[in-house]
Amino acid sequence: MDTGPFQLPSEIVEMCDVAKRIVHDELLPLEPQYLQHPGHSFGTNQTATNLKLVFGQDVLDHLTKISRETGLWYLMVPEEHGGSGLSMLAQIAIMEQFNYTAVPFPFAHVANILYQSEGDQVDRFLKPVIEGEKITCFAQTEPNAGSDPGGMMQTHAVQDGDEWVLNGTKMWISGAAESDIIMVQAVTDKEKRQRGGITMFLVDRNNPGVTIEEPGIQTWLGTRPSQYIVHLDDCRVPATDILGEVGNGFRLGQRWLTIHDRLLRGPFAIGKMQRALDMSVEWAKQRETFGKPLSERQAIQWKLVDMYIDLQSLQSLTYQMAARADTGEDIRTEASMIKLVSMNWGARCLDDAIQIHGAMGESLELPLTLFYRYLRHGRIGGGTDEIQKMLIARKLLRD
Ligand SMILES: Cc1cc2nc3c(=O)[nH]c(=O)nc-3n(C[C@H](O)[C@H](O)[C@H](O)COP(=O)(O)OP(=O)(O)OC[C@H]3O[C@@H](n4cnc5c(N)ncnc54)[C@H](O)[C@@H]3O)c2cc1C
């Protein structure tokens, strides 16, 4: 495993080799069918649905069995909840392997803030999600509140005895229709808003106050719509289904985004960039024009070099940040940096790979355009490039 200037401990390298074998033996052979099937959709909370729709229940069961038997299922679950207890660095290095292919591998997909569950929330929400019996989605964005949810959020909740009554509309919610639990942010104090006035509610998808518009919004990320508009109309939620404290929901949302979303964009991009580079090197060596392989042309070599440098730099930076997160350091700004560069370098690396492949680069038989679309999307979803830069600038100017 080429990990560039960053030396991974040998036990992590061994775990990565297990992941790599699964990718090569189990997932890559399935990839051509996956890429051309009309039933796949974007989002980690879509993994089971995607595998079932594209390959059927048997393949989903087979891959889930491998995931559970190897312990990979619990890769990102903390030790106190029955998880692997692996460092962030190990998790990231392993996740990178699974991002080498477009075929998703089933893991326990737990939004990290759900570990704030208390009392009977643990049995009703957290445990079923860890075991893959229930799926969650995260509902922050609204038709008029994207980059500035704290300032612009309209969805609000008013207390009525032991319940809260939620009203509002959420938009772009990934996997809402397949989810059992919607993690909804709502304003509970209009004066305080993001400074103690937004609360996170765990809303049952079957609550009569919830309507999810079907068929969802079709984007370029999949062959099946996966983002939804969710209406909350006098949606009554028991006070016991508040996650964390009243007024603490914005902070929780930011926490989810920092680690779960922003830092993990590193391995999400690295795996795809490595695949794009491997494919491009192979293609350049065997494709001939004007009597010579492409690999002998400096114009092509320089593209390969650019891809390699981006990949090595991103890998090194991501591993360093993961190692710092493992020491308990606050890496919020650095996670923004990882998100920003992984999506930008990743998208330009895939752009080069498509160019080197010529017409074949645009074929849906190859994963290149799908990877490109995923990475380009990452410059918007989960906080845009501009918002990451704003967050980094804040730290620069403050310090
Ligand atoms: C496929 C997909 C999946 C998604 N999944 C989810 C989900 O599961 N849950 C969820 O809650 N949301 C989800 N989103 C929403 C996503 O997080 C938002 O789209 C994103 O945060 C940007 O918000 P916006 O689209 O409203 O853009 P806007 O806020 O309207 O911004 C438009 C443009 O202006 C720029 N801009 C805004 N403010 C500034 C500023 N101060 N300075 C400079 N430039 C600025 C932005 O960077 C952007 O380029 C998803 C979106 C997509 C496309």
List key phrases describing it.
399 residues; alpha+beta; Butyryl-Coa Dehydrogenase, subunit A, domain 1; Butyryl-CoA Dehydrogenase, subunit A, domain 2; Butyryl-CoA Dehydrogenase, subunit A, domain 3; 3 domains; four-stranded mixed sheet; four-stranded antiparallel sheet; 13 helices; binds flavin-adenine dinucleotide
Short précis:
The protein is α+β, with helices and mostly antiparallel strands and 399 residues long. It contains 13 helices and 10 strands.
Uncertain runs are: none
Shape: globular
Number of domains: 3
Which strand order do you get reading across the main beta sheet?
A: 1-4-5-8
Small-molecule components bound: flavin-adenine dinucleotide
Q: What is the annotated CATH architecture of the largest domain?
A: Up-down Bundle
Helix content: 40-55%
Task: Classify the beta-strand content into a percent band.
Answer: 5-15%
Task: State Rg.
Answer: 22 Å
Name the structural class. Answer: alpha+beta
Secondary-structure element pattern, one letter each: HHHHHHEHEEEEEEEHHEEHHHH
Provide the CATH topology of the largest domain: Butyryl-CoA Dehydrogenase, subunit A, domain 3
Text of the CATH class of the largest domain = Mainly Alpha
Mean pLDDT, nearest integer?
95
Number of helices: 13
Describe the protein in words.
With 399 residues, this protein is an alpha+beta fold. The chain has 3 domains: 10-109, Acyl-CoA dehydrogenase/oxidase, N-terminal domain (Butyryl-Coa Dehydrogenase, subunit A, domain 1), CATH 1.10.540; 136-248, Butyryl-CoA Dehydrogenase, subunit A, domain 2; 264-398, Butyryl-CoA Dehydrogenase, subunit A, domain 3, CATH 1.20.140.10. Helix content is 47%, strand content 14%. The strands form 3 sheets. A 4-stranded mixed β-sheet has the order 1-4-5-8. The protein has a 4-stranded antiparallel β-sheet with strand order 2-3-7-6, with no helix packed on it. A hairpin with a 2-residue loop joins strand 9 (288-289) and strand 10 (292-293). Helix 5 runs antiparallel to helix 10 (298-326), helix 9 packs parallel to helix 11 (332-357) and helix 11 (332-357) runs antiparallel to helix 13. The longest helix is centred in the C-terminal third of the chain and has 29 residues, at 298-326. It is globular. It starts with 9 loop residues before the first helix and ends with a helix. The model has no long low-confidence stretch (mean pLDDT 95). Bound molecules: flavin-adenine dinucleotide. The site of flavin-adenine dinucleotide has 22 residues, from strand 1, strand 3 and helix 13.
